[in-house]
Write a structure and sequence with these properties.
Layout: E1 2-7, E2 13-19, E3 22-29, H1 35-49, E4 59-63, H2 69-86, E5 90-93, H3 95-100, E6 109-115, E7 120-129, E8 132-143, H4 144-153, E9 158-161, H5 163-167, H6 169-175, E10 180-182, H7 192-204, H8 223-228
Parallel strand pairs: 1-4, 4-5, 6-9, 9-10
Antiparallel strand pairs: 1-2, 2-3, 6-7, 7-8
Length: about 230
């Protein structure tokens, strides 16, 4: 099966195509243009450069959030448009799980953290079991102090990644009581290749939906919504 993966939850726009769990190509761009300007051209280029037709694609996998509100909406529109036009199912991949997929550490829990500003974060906790990434705690919004309590409650070593692991490195280093490792910077970036890998596992578990059923998962109201509520 061929999977088209789309990642738009952060400043980096990324797309990839995989055959089952084998990556065929990945294209990313993280500067100058907005997602609305760069994402669809990246998809077109990735398909053309690798002689892949949209008719060859069986699944559209999309980062469902959390992340950038604008980026998630743009990615959702593109994914749903492609899926609707080609009558394809969608695989809605949790952003935090795809981020955790960047880290191949079979001995420790993987705690993926995205900075949500003001000591707030999005996080998820995962662990590898062979070639399958298992969810220990579903992605959730939390402040950094509460997240530290959750990490300490694991009672075992952790690897942390994501931009939140960089922003809050000092407070994590000082307050986490279990052994902690910080992933290299290259593992902190959201990637469509990881979307494809997690999507493949979800497809095997029959966790796919129809295009009209998909909606981004923000986990928090937007800043504008919070301001309207006072």
């Amino acid at each position: 099966m061929k999977i088209l993966g789309i990642e738009s939850a952060s400043i980096t726009a990324s797309c990839a195509v995989a055959e089952n769990d084998i990556l065929l190509c990945e294209y990313s761009q993280s500067f100058n243009k907005t997602h609305s300007e760069k994402l669809m051209p990246l998809i077109v280029q990735s398909l053309e450069d690798n002689s892949i037709q949209l008719d060859d694609i069986q699944y559209v996998a999309i980062s469902k959030g959390p992340g950038s509100y604008t980026g998630l909406r743009i990615g959702a529109s593109i994914a749903k448009g492609i899926a609707l036009a080609k009558n394809l199912p969608i695989v809605a991949v949790p952003t935090m799980k795809s981020l955790a997929c960047n880290v191949l550490d079979y001995n420790n829990y993987i705690v993926s953290i995205i900075d949500a500003k003001g000591n707030r974060t999005y996080a998820g906790i995962y662990k590898w079991d062979g070639d399958k990434l298992c969810t220990i705690k579903e992605q959730f919004p939390t402040d950094i102090e509460d997240l530290i309590d959750v990490i300490n409650s694991l009672g075992s070593g952790v690897v942390v990644n994501g931009d939140g692991s960089v922003v809050y490195k000092d407070i994590l280093s000082q307050n986490v009581k279990v052994p902690i490792k910080f992933a290299p910077q290259r593992f902190n970036i959201l990637k469509a290749s990881s979307i494809c890998y997690v999507a493949y596992q979800m497809i095997l578990d029959d966790k796919v939906i129809k295009s009209f059923e998909f909606a981004p998962e923000y986990l928090r109201p937007s800043q504008a919504e919070r301001m309207c509520k006072g």
